[in-house]
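quick one: iron/sulfur cluster bound model?
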Amino acid sequence: MALLDVRNLKVHYRTLRGANRAVDGVSFTVEKGRSLGLVGESGCGKSTTVNGIVRVMPKNAFIPEGEVLLNGTDLVSLPESALRSIRWRELSLIPQAAMDSLNPVYLVQDAFLEVLRLKGGMSKAEALDRAQHLFQLVGLDIRRLKNYPHEFSGGMKQRAAIALALALNPKLVIADEPVTALDVIVQRQVLNEIRRLREQLHISLIMITHDISVVAETCDDIAVMYAGKIVERGRTAAVLQNPLHPYTMGLKNAFPDIRRGRRTLISIEGAPPSLLEPPAGCRFAERCPFALDVCSDVEPTLEEAAAGQVAACHRLDEVDELQTRAQEVETWQNVI
Ligand SMILES: Nc1ncnc2c1ncn2[C@@H]1O[C@H](COP(=O)(O)OP(=O)(O)OP(=O)(O)O)[C@@H](O)[C@H]1O
Ligand code: SF4
Ligand SMILES: [Mg+2]
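yep, here:
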């Protein structure tokens, strides 16, 4: 059984103009000890997906459909009280810009004491001891526990956020853009730290990023999201080597390939569609250089087109030709 099995999860937002179907039926699994990278451009629903998984959502969000099975228990249908005892212990979320949301008038150690004492039932002395251990685990000086959040650099904030997520030994950690705001050198240090901790503590990881090269370095598996859906999923190495979906091909073009020294970055023109009234067919059709008439009318479903690799596209049987064309700058110009 997978540690986490997300089935057809939908997370929508009530707005004055109707429901925004930000996450509209995503499915994926995370096996014990493995890491999954969730990628896609800004607004595609990455944070909404993981906030829905842990059910820490804004008031106007709701889950109309779907299951989130953690070790076989469906978190969607659990009462809030039961979910509270699962968060932090079984799975924990490092929210986007986690440390920036800490109360600036409290010491960093107060955030740790709160979790360790209130959620972990520890005494103050035990909690302080554990907080120091966690700081050492992520390579932070324990004296820094007595700092205020604003006294931390970006990299230190991320390390502290990781330490806090590990407070009660969860089996699954979900990190929402843990390295986005960091410069390249610190980014690398934090990613190395995440890799080391994962191996040392045998934890599973979901890492959200818009940067496909971060997934390439850190995650066993990858799920590519576009406009509230997963359009491709598989082993990271296989997907990046042999992308089946045109959006994945485009995303790959938009980031530097460190190993091959690629210099020309190609961007995908346009923007994702509104999810107040999503298009009937393929949500990528408007920006896809390979769109056919059928693409706007019929929604493609995820199909396995290579071993362990699924994608939702009507042209999966022409993938070799599309990959060749996708590498040319002209292909992506004047599409819309
Ligand atoms: N509270 C909210 N009410 C209404 N719509 C929302 C709310 N929060 C997010 N959205 C919308 O839901 C969609 C998905 O947002 P989400 O934050 O999940 O994207 P994301 O992929 O995490 O983007 P980013 O990379 O910028 O963090 C966006 O269109 C966003 O505008
Ligand atoms: S279904 Fe059509 S529009 Fe969508 S990605 Fe495939 S070719 Fe492009
Ligand atoms: Mg986000």
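The pocket of iron/sulfur cluster (ligand 2) is lined by residues 245-246, 282, 284-285, 288, 290-292, 295, 300, 313-315 (CB under 6 Å).
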